[in-house]
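Ticket #384: bound-state structure for 2-acetamido-2-deoxy-beta-D-glucopyranose.
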Amino acid sequence: MKDFALTLLLSAALSSALPQEIDWDAVDALKPIPTASIPVVSAAAAATTLPINTASAVSAVSSAVLARPSEAIIAARHVKFHVARAILATRDNDNSTATDNSKCAQKPAADDTPDAFGQTQSFAQTALKASTPAGYNQVYVNKNGSSEFIYPYLGFTTLDSYDTAKCAKRCDAVSGCQSINIYFERDPSVEPAAGCTDPSSSTVIKCVYWGSPVTDASTTNTGQWRKNFKVLIAGSNGYVNATHSKPPGYNEPISLNNSAIIAPPNCRGYETYMGVKIFQNKPFSIDLCASACSASSEYNRAHPDKTGYFQTCQFFNTYILYNETQAVGQYCALYNETWPKDFATNFGQFRNGRKFTLGSSWMVSNSTADLDKPRGCANGQTCS
Ligand SMILES: *[C@@H]1O[C@H](CO)[C@@H](O)[C@H](O)[C@H]1NC(C)=O
Ligand SMILES: *[C@@H]1O[C@H](CO)[C@@H](O)[C@H](O)[C@H]1NC(C)=O
Ligand SMILES: *[C@@H]1O[C@H](CO)[C@@H](O)[C@H](O)[C@H]1NC(C)=O
Ligand SMILES: *[C@@H]1O[C@H](CO)[C@@H](O)[C@H](O)[C@H]1NC(C)=O
Ligand SMILES: *[C@@H]1O[C@H](CO)[C@@H](O)[C@H](O)[C@H]1NC(C)=O
Ligand SMILES: *[C@@H]1O[C@H](CO)[C@@H](O)[C@H](O)[C@H]1NC(C)=O
Ligand SMILES: *[C@@H]1O[C@H](CO)[C@@H](O)[C@H](O)[C@H]1NC(C)=O
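RESOLUTION: The complex was predicted; output attached.
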């Protein structure tokens, strides 16, 4: 087997000026995440859940790092997770035919129009006065779009009333659920089809579960055409579970919000950055990155170089990387030394004309080492 610790050391020494900027090789190697769109339902109540067990995802990370360390750590590659089977309701944008309601059992009343839905004041009033569920933070209020492309999609339920607390409770019962989007949707009462291309509408209140935080920017799903029927959204509110985990053996995670660490070289001019892993379509979890960090140390400890030297992962920065409004994955950057918050200077980067930003960023250090300063220099020399 290749001498991993040595490879790590050499790569670190030879790496370019700012190796911790977004690793485009790692990002480009990712496969697209299948689009999950929420089925447009007619009148009858509907629900589906697609729970994902975070604990088993965490142990999968550890096993993957131990089995393929070079791929997983310095080579900065992602783990291929089992992607939850999503409901793939294709968007029906076939709008070529003229409205034909000759065979409609459910003909729309004269005032049943998209415009009338848009002008319904009670949707906005309800959304604006809705209370934030206990243990959640409000992220957006009264949007005309629902969240999409934030991953993983964990299902939805319809509700009899716009009840944010009930929606949050349902989310709490879905493994991996971290945020909710509740909204009014103008749905067709029956599936539009030949002879009934624009049926009457029914207003459905949807409560959607997401495995990562909903964001204001993600409310881009403003509806769709189904034959000649226009699906619309109103009064869309987003709430995120305020709890974050504290992985055992690590200090209390420190929030960096929408920024990421770019650590300088240590006092001897060496990079302390060990590499990156990106998790896709898994519930966002600080524990996933902690698992990668600890497993890297475990592997290195078992594979010292000829002088007995090995590196350990002592610190990590994990966040959600966004390609404009769409989540790319959970980024997990590993370091062999702890750095203070002052080095959180990366607020995003442009690439091929698209803006990549960060969110839900946390930095976490090993609580055994427990140093808020760079270390590793000879003779106790401090780096400042
Ligand atoms: C679709 O059809 C409706 C009604 O016939 C029309 O108002 C609308 O402009 C069409 N939309 C598109 C995108 O072609
Ligand atoms: C939502 O749509 C309504 C009706 O078209 C409009 O009055 C309102 O300004 C829109 N709100 C947003 C946030 O775009
Ligand atoms: C938030 O998430 C935590 C951890 O997953 C969970 O235990 C809790 O039930 C969730 N809901 C609230 C309201 O805290
Ligand atoms: C976190 O970042 C978002 C933008 O991504 C910003 O709207 C928000 O105000 C920030 N929160 C804090 C506490 O800095
Ligand atoms: C923290 O670092 C110490 C020293 O390298 C190591 O023994 C311990 O396993 C690390 N803790 C975790 C949770 O990785
Ligand atoms: C960003 O999104 C655009 C549009 O979907 C896509 O063409 C591009 O490949 C994405 N880039 C990366 C690095 O994911
Ligand atoms: C971190 O890695 C660099 C580069 O390999 C090395 O010079 C430094 O001593 C390491 N720090 C620790 C604490 O092992």
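RESOLUTION NOTES: Residues 5-37+52-89+247-372 form one domain.
TICKET STATUS: resolved
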